[in-house]
Amino acid sequence: MNRRQFLTATSVVGLGAIGLYTFGGSSSMRAADLEGMPRLKMPPLLDARADRSPELVAQKGNTVFVGNAANPTFGFNQPYLGPTLVLDKGDFNPVIRNELPTPVSVHWHGLLVPGEHDGGPHIPVNRGEEWSPEITIDQPPATVWYHTHIHERTAQDVHKGLAGIMHLTDGRDDDRGLPNRYGVDDLTLVLQDRRIDERGFVSYRLSMPDLMHGFTGNTMLVNGQYGTVGAVPGGIVRLRLINGSNARIYSLFFEDNRAFQLIATDAGFLEKPAMMSKLPLSPGERAEILVDFSDGKPAMLMSGGDQNQGPGGMMGRMRGFVDQFVDRDFAILPFAVDEGMEARITKFPDELDGADITLREEDSIRTRSFSLDMGMMGMMGGGGFAINGEPFDMSRVNLEVALGSTETWRISSSMLSHPFHIHGAVFKVLSENGRRPQSHNQGLKDTVLVQDQIDLLVRFDKPASREKPFMYHCHILEHEDAGMMGQFSVI
Ligand code: C2O
Ligand code: CU
Ligand code: CU
User: Fold this and answer.
1) 127, 204, 313, 399: which has the highest count of C-beta atoms within 10 A?
2) DSSP code of 339?
3) Per residue in 115-129, pLDDT tens?
């Protein structure tokens, strides 16, 4: 079965229809349209350089996303999502407390920490319990994130809101000429799509096609907010983009096609900024870009359709906004220049210092192959999600890796594209389908979208025991929960 037949056979139908958050044609957006719209808020900042033992309390809440429907949600220290933690090198000893009835774990996605301090499926924090990992941060600046990771609950609980962002900094962004004022010229944007009905209620009910393709929505939230505008100064603005969606693969661009600079990928800064006008971002991935707003004009951040959701099938033939959203470009967030905000940075940097992690191909001691399997059974909805034919099993450590070693991992996918993620490691993409990696995949990463085949050079510098192993998995959370995950020790 080829990709098109697969998509046709399992296309999603019947998304509830609410007004899609979009503006009409390309010429229609004016500054006046944005007046009176609420401004996008940042998640609250929690400076963990000042308080190195911050508390993160998993709790219940109610959140209004659209209209005035209150939805039951989860968050850390608040009703939905969690605070943005600012961290530098050194100790980080957070206290995680769980006030929810169900277990949570806190995985530091992108933090290089030993397995025993990384909250994966083996480190549940049950109701009323606390967990205090002892972390020493010793990696380059990057935008990383944290989220719950209980096996078979990750998708639903992250969907409910159990995720937050971390900024690792070395305090040298002024020297680099990079914007760094949180919420002013340095914006954190958590992209999540949700399925919201006419009345404003969020649903997360997995149909068979949702399980197959991953759960996608009809409405965009940015930092858990709907229908807002990003207010920016008329200069260079840094956007930290986090794909916190369960399954949607974005392909980001501005409606006026303005070029922007990619300055960082998952694991840190690039050596040199890369100019581009379209940026794919799959679940789990982060990217930092610089955008020039000095022309004073409003700009709309858009996305192209999700390659895993279409085209073809019944979806492509449906009328109205549903197929617009699924197959075509849709709006994510408008930006408006606020003259009252000081434009501190007015030119793009020419150079960056890169992330000081060295990965050399000649250091690779072996090659392993991984095939991300959905299987015919998966197609029919009976399971079949696996890696190398093995569905995730809590009691099976799939591989052992030597501490301090570098390996080549060849990942292949069929039918759909899968964002492949490795815990406790950093990698460089060697090739994509035998070719040089695409420009957005040339930096250091921990998650990458696999379309057919990709070769990674992976470095394992943090230990993980057989009891508290690291995971590798597809970051489409429905696939992960259904078994497209494996685990490895690093000893
Ligand atoms: Cu963000 Cu194991 O994942
Ligand atoms: Cu992770
Ligand atoms: Cu997948």
Assistant:
1) 313
2) T
3) 999 999 999 999 999
Topology annotation, domain 175-337: Immunoglobulin-like (2.60.40)
With cut-offs at 50, 70 and 90, classify the pLDDT of residue 25: very low
Q: Report strand pairing: 130-131 vs 84-87.
A: unpaired
- Where along the chain do its domains lie? 45-171, 175-337, 361-490
The answer to whether residue 10 scores a pLDDT higher than 90 is no
Residue with the bigger pLDDT between 241 and 35: it is: 241
What is the C-alpha separation between 80 and 427, in angstroms, rounded? Answer: 31
What separation in Å is there between the alpha carbon of 441 and the centre of ligand 1? 18
Lowest mean pLDDT among 22-26, 240-244, 259-263, 275-279: 22-26
| CATH tag for 45-171 (out of 2.170.150.70, 3.30.70.120, 2.60.40.420, 3.40.50.10800) | 2.60.40.420
Atom of ligand 1 nearest to the CA of 423: 2
Sign of CA dihedral 183, 187, 188, 194: positive
The set of protein residues with a Cβ atom below 6 angstroms from ligand 1 is 107, 109, 147, 149, 284, 421, 423, 471, 473, 475
Q: How far apart are CA 9 and CA 376, in angstroms?
A: 12
Protein residue closest via CA to atom 3 of ligand 1: 109
Q: Which atom of ligand 1 is nearest to the CA of 284?
A: 1
| Ligand minimally distant from the alpha carbon of residue 424 | 2
pLDDT digits (tens, 9 = 90+) for 345-396: 999 999 998 888 989 999 999 999 999 998 765 455 556 899 999 999 999 9
**pLDDT above 70 (res 173):** yes
According to CATH, the topology of domain 361-490 is Immunoglobulin-like (2.60.40)
State the residue for tokens 């998993």.
Answer: 58
Task: Quick: pLDDT tens for 124-154.
Answer: 999 999 999 999 999 999 999 999 999 999 9
Q: What is the DSSP string of 386-398?
A: EETTB---TT---
Ligand 1 atom nearest 471 alpha carbon: 2
Query: Please, are residues 460 and 363 in contact by the beta-carbon 8 Å criterion?
Result: no
Mean pLDDT of the region 157-171 = 98
Give this prediction's pTM: 0.92
What φ, ψ does residue 315 adopt, rounded to 5°? -55, -45
- The answer to whether 45-171 and 175-337 have equal CATH topology is yes
Q: How far apart are CA 369 and CA 229, in angstroms?
A: 44
* Residues surrounding ion ligand 3 at CB below 5 Å: 418, 474, 476, 479
CA-147 nearest atom, ligand 1: 1
Residue 276, CB-side half-sphere exposure with 13 Å CA sphere: 19
